[in-house]
C-alpha cells in the first residue's frame, strides 16, 4: 500500500512557502494513494489570444502536479528536478473554466521518478492534454 | 458511449492477414470501450543479452497495441501512421514472462489520434514501461 | 533552397500584434534557411526560487521559437497549433543571463510540421535544454 | 575538446561480442567528437508490409546509435540503460536503402546522459525520423 508522507494541506502550505510567486495559481484538491489532483485557478495571465489557456500554463500545471505527487510520497526534504516532459495537447480547453490535473507516480526509484498526468477542463470528461514526466531525485 | 467497429477476434484476423511476419508475436486479449489489451508472446528473438525483453520489442508492442486500439474505433479501412512515440522504460521486465500492453485512445480526431499505453510483465502490478503515441489518420 | 516568407523583423511585428502580452519577452535574433534564433529577455517573472529560469518559461521559449520558424516558412496566414512537445532539461541556466533558442524545421508537411530546438544561456556552448515539437497546420 | 575512449572499430567489436544477435544489423561508420554515425544494414526482417523499414527497427537504430555514442565517451565499462525515448517519424524511408543515424551526446552527467539522433535514408538530405533519448548511467 502506498503511504503518503504529506497531506493535501501540507503540500499546499509547502507551495505557499517555497513557491510564493506561483502558489496562488494552484490548489491541491486531493492527494492519496491513487495520485494527486491539482487545480489551475485560471486567470488572465494564463490565457493566449482567443481566451484559451496557454501551452506554458498547461505545461506548468502538469509539472507542478507531478512534483507535488512525488513530494507526497518522499516528503519535503528532497529537491526533485524535472529532466523530461513529453506533453500532448489534444483539445482546446473550455474558455472560462479552471483546469484540473490528475497526476500519478508510476515509478519511484532511487535516482529517477516517472509519472503521467491528464489535464481536464473542469466538468469535462475528455482530457485537453496528457503528459509523461521524469524527475531526477538528488542523493540525500 | 464508445462503439467499437471491430472485435478482438476481427483485430487478430486483421493482424494475421496484413502483418503476417509479426502477427504471431501478438495476441489481442481484449478490446472494449475502455481500451485494448495486447500480449507479446515473448520468444528468443525479443530478448537482449541477459534475457530481458529488448527496447525495440517493447516499442513494437506499444505501437501495435495503440494501432489496433485505433482500428477498433475507426474500422480496418484507414491506414494510420505513427508520427510520435514517447516511451519511458521504468523497470526490467521479469525474465520468462509475456508482456501485456494496456492501450487507451485519448483523442480520435479528424487527422490525429492520441493515446497512451502501460506495459506490464504478466502477473505484476507495477508497469515496466509507459508510452504516449500519436498517429496520423489519412483522409478517406 | 529554403525560401522564407517572413523576415526576422516581420516575425517580430507579428508577435507584437498578435501576442501582445508575451511579445515583450521575446526578440527574434535571426531567421534564415538554417532556422530561427529567439531570445528570451529574462525578467523576474520567468524565475523560480533560486533565480534560475522556470521550466514553463523554457517551454514557452521553445514553443514560440518553433512557431515562428514555421511561420517564417509558410507565412502569417495559417494558425499552427502545438500538438506535442518533448523537452529535456539538461543543465541549470546561468543566473542573470538571457536564453537563446535555436529552432530548425525538420519537416513541413501538409498537415504536420516537426522541428527541434536547443536552448542556451547566452555565451555558453552547452545547451540547457532540448525539445522536439510537432504542430498541426489547419487546412486553408 | 571531447576525448573519445573508444574508436569506431572498438565499438564495432564491442557490439559483436556483447550484442551478438543484433550486431550484424549495424555498422559503425564514424565516431568522433561531433558524434557517431551508425548504419542499419536493412534486411527483410526490418521491413513492414509495403517494403519500408518498420518503426521498431528505426527505434532500435536510434537506441543503439546513442548507446554507442555514450560508450565512445565513457568507455565499455559502464552499462547504460535507456530510460526515455521520444521519436518522431517524419517521412517514409526510401525502399531498398540502408538507414544512417547521426547521434550526438548533448549531456553526459553523473547519472544521466541525454542526446539526439537524426535518421536518414542513405543519400537523402531530409531526415526520416528524429529522436531524443535519455540513458541512466549506473554508479561504478
From TrEMBL, chains A, B, C, D:
The keyword Protein biosynthesis does not apply. Gene3D superfamilies: Hotdog Thioesterase (3.10.129.10). GO terms for molecular function: acyl-CoA hydrolase activity. Transmembrane segments: none annotated. InterPro entries: HotDog_dom_sf (IPR029069), PAAI_dom (IPR003736), Thioestr_dom (IPR006683). Residues 50-126 form the Thioesterase domain. Keywords: Hydrolase. It comes from the Bacteria. This is PaaI family thioesterase.
Amino acid at each position: 500500500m502506498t503511504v503518503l508522507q504529506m497531506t493535501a494541506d501540507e503540500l499546499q502550505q509547502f507551495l505557499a512557502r517555497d513557491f510564493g510567486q506561483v502558489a496562488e495559481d494552484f490548489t491541491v484538491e486531493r492527494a492519496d494513494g491513487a495520485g494527486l489532483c491539482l487545480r489551475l485557478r485560471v486567470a488572465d495571465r494564463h490565457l493566449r489570444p482567443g481566451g484559451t489557456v496557454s501551452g506554458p500554463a498547461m505545461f506548468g500545471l502538469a509539472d507542478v502536479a507531478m512534483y507535488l505527487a512525488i513530494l507526497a510520497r518522499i516528503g519535503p526534504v528532497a529537491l526533485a528536478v524535472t529532466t523530461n516532459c513529453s506533453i500532448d495537447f489534444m483539445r482546446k480547453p473550455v474558455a472560462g473554466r479552471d483546469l484540473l490535473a490528475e497526476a500519478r507516480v508510476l515509478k519511484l526509484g532511487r535516482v529517477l521518478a516517472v509519472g503521467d498526468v491528464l489535464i481536464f477542463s473542469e466538468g469535462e470528461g475528455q482530457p485537453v492534454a496528457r503528459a509523461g514526466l521524469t524527475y531526477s531525485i538528488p542523493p540525500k
